[in-house]
Amino acid sequence: MNNTIETILKHRSVRAFTEVEIPQSDVDQIIEAAQAASTSSFLQAYSIIGITDPEKKRTLSILAGNQSYVKENGYFLVFCADLYRHEQAAEQHGVDITQTTESTEAFMISLIDAALAAQNAAVTAESMGLGICYIGGIRNNLKQVCELLQTPNKVVPLFGMAIGYPKQIEEQKPRIPKEIIFHENQYMQDNDILNENLQQYDQIISDYYKQRTNAKKNMTWTKQITNTLEHSKRLYLNDFIKQCGFLR
Amino acid sequence: MNNTIETILKHRSVRAFTEVEIPQSDVDQIIEAAQAASTSSFLQAYSIIGITDPEKKRTLSILAGNQSYVKENGYFLVFCADLYRHEQAAEQHGVDITQTTESTEAFMISLIDAALAAQNAAVTAESMGLGICYIGGIRNNLKQVCELLQTPNKVVPLFGMAIGYPKQIEEQKPRIPKEIIFHENQYMQDNDILNENLQQYDQIISDYYKQRTNAKKNMTWTKQITNTLEHSKRLYLNDFIKQCGFLR
């Protein structure tokens, strides 16, 4: 197994960082690596906003649900879907591309482009010995996040990424059995096999939590995700993303 | 610079592969690495379908716009947004989570989860000396792709990935200047700076194409993306994705 695969398999989210800032040259390397990712039709339909202002970090951490590691880290990035510069570019050529940029397809392209770039950034940071944590919590209050970051129409902040020197390393959470996330040639729709695998996985996750918490936490995967998904969150997003000029 | 960063920066899409199949152990490693990526709220809201049946590859390549490298490669993966197993799991606990799974937020989570996993797969493959190419073309005919892969409700194939031993290595396309894709603390909305950078980038891309094609291709980035975005593609997607149980 090569170093790259080792780095990738060693991943776990880090939620406690030292206050040591990441050197600018490392940040530059992370951004360069992000930009090296594949991009749909060469569109590069995303932007990255680096947050260095402590006051903005503090505000973001509150907006993202009071997560301390949003303000206490070595660097903080926000990845955005971005078709703003494309509309500017088309305008230079006298072409209106709004019908395309506001389509579901364009939104999907932007999300995928942004996520591919982000994962390159994550792996790069981890290969340097840094830890990372994705922050979906910025979608709790996207209107305020947009105001804080002064994003124009056709730009939507999607998620943040806290990066820094780990203060505490957590254990890796076991993933879903390959048997039910990987399919060959066609989607495996046999619910007996699915449920059998979910049951096995529930046991693995239950054991994992028990071991980690001295038997205090008793939770399976199916129960955990049912709890998470039982109450809908962020239902304002459909309207808000339309307001930003996407998904119309 | 470590090996991982070198691998990431060396990326270019490969569109011509030898017919040599990738060993199963390498495919397994790629899938394991994909699964190691971060996932929102531990949901793991994606599936990966490996296509080994030559007839299915051939059909997919036609559906994706007659791209030869969809059928001629060492392995082909399809990454899907997937909340099917979550609905099954919640049902076991007697809870209806449809309001959540059909939300825009859930669709975003699934897309991001799938893309993070995919980029881990891409970097892993490239670290093994393999080449990759993302295939957005499967979104040309998603209904037929779903039928071919027999995906249930709450599963949407998002993009493919051709993997294999490169037969031909292409040059790397220069990326957008960091100055306009990276912003510090707030989105840079100065259109004079934007246009100046776009102009510089147009020159870089124009030079790149001229050099690659013996001056036959004369194209700037702003012109290229304007051409791409002038005519809307895949406008059926909004309706189709709703039919699949998302984005309602």
UniProtKB/TrEMBL annotation, chains A, B:
Residue ranges constituting the Nitroreductase domain according to the UniProt record: 8-165
Sorted keywords for this record are:
Flavoprotein, FMN, NADP, Oxidoreductase
Gene3D superfamilies for the chain: NADH Oxidase
InterPro entries according to UniProt: Flavin_OxRdtase_Frp, Nitroreductase, Nitroreductase-like
Pfam families (alphabetical): Nitroreductase
Origin superkingdom: Bacteria
Report the SUPFAM superfamilies cross-referenced here.
FMN-dependent nitroreductase-like (SSF55469)
Q: Name one GO molecular function term.
A: oxidoreductase activity
The transmembrane segments are none
Q: Which NCBIfam families does the entry link to? A: PRK10765.1
Which family is annotated? Belongs to the flavin oxidoreductase frp family.
**Name the UniProt record assigns to this protein:** FMN reductase (NADPH)
